[in-house]
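Fold it.
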Amino acid sequence: MSTDTPGLLDKERIIAGPGYNRWLVPPAALAIHLCIGMAYGFSVFWLPLSKALGIKEAIKCGPEVGFWAQLFTTTCDWQISTLGWMYTLFFVLLGSSAATWGGWLERAGPRKAGVVSALCWCGGMLISALGVYLHQFWMMVLGSGVIGGIGLGLGYISPVSTLIKWFPDRRGMATGMAIMGFGGGAMIGSPLANDLMKYFATPTDVGVMQTFIVMALVYFVFMMAGAFGYRVPETGWKPAGWTPPPAQVDNAMITQRHVHVTKVWGIPQFWLIWMVLCMNVSAGIGVIGMASPMLQEVFGGSLIGLTAKFGELDKDQLKAIATVAAGFTALLSLFNIGGRFFWASLSDLLGRRLTYVVFFVLGGLMYFSVPSSSNAGNIVLFVGAFCIILSMYGGGFATVPAYLADIFGTQMVGAIHGRLLTAWATAGVLGPVVVNYMREYQLSLGLPREQVYNQTMYILVGMLAVGLICNLLVRPLDDKWFMSDEELAEEKRLAHERAAASVVSRVEGAGDDTISPAVVFLAWLAVGLPLAWGVYRTLQSVAKFFA
């Protein structure tokens, strides 16, 4: 294709002209993140899928049907533990695909990456729907796990570099808005999936296949709208009246130069920030997966006004405390999402390194307090500690892109962020393994259920201490790591950057990109209404906890 006539998805086509309103970019990012964020909520499908053949009761596989046989069996139902591997695949593929194709994204632009993400994520759900219909688990692993996981990685990092370039004055806030959407995806998707499964369920069908199809189609519309809403600023664009802070004064950690993504594996600061993210996420993600059983086992009957311990409760009482625990889990999800915007925005004032110091010191104190509050039966302190912990877990995700931009520059921050997400993939295995296996080990020693998490909390304090040390060791980069002016110019050429949008304007037949405030309002409304509905449904669950 001629370079004079860029294609619809090419980066040259989406350079914003004079008058473009940068506040249109965050809702475009949210439209994609709210859809792929359903990865967090996929566990809503496990119970129905574990009875896909039996409908009311699972048709259990014989002892001769192991994990590999379950991939192909059509005669018995899948185990929930087998289905859970899809959740692991999501985050392993998210990290690895973001690391693999992050450099391509910087050159291809966010629109093309957003379209590929939509095709992978939604196409993967359709393949999974076929897998449910044929009762072939390998198709679900391939569809949502592998292909969908690649879509997750590309969709997750697609707005990072663009938002940081549009909001050099508020890097943390900008990335916090988008990554808040990833945390909010399950808040919308989980209740929506539940409602759809109830609607499609029949005496012979659990309704998962139809739910996958409907959600894939709805998500595709939203994600394509988000991808086509992306615009990139002209080279050197700055907000009116804003000047970059001088690097020598209080902002020595913020560079005005740029590092090439191919060099980051060899830079000590990259690995220090990798450990910072890994330790923060490992501690939080392990707790997320066990939040509901932890509350139930620690407080038992006191959740419903009884003095009985967990092991002394009957079936109806166990069901009642499970409802309360579901409200606790919903409350944590609200703090996880709110923390992404709150802490990332606060980092614009505190600086990124100090923000992480707060995460590790305050988080360590919260984990350290949990055994005391559980032994004292103080549910308010116990719940409060975990709400703060989960806010900082989400805040860590949202703050790290701006941290990378400060240290490594903005030219290839999306690609560098992609490589850093391998820390998330590692934490997705490390955190749950530590929490789950320590729980089993403590139970094997004969400890009461209300005490099996105490040692785990102290281990998580140790992990945060490691993260704190790594964070304090982060220093500005040596000059040798930055691109020379010639290397930067070549990278900008490869990234199809233009000094101005006039060439593109001629192609598109437009003089400038002045946007009506009504369009900006409608864009925010399109993502705000589903998010508000998700918050409302989550608050309904939270109410059961406080009741």
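The CA atoms of residues 26 and 178 lie 6 Å apart.
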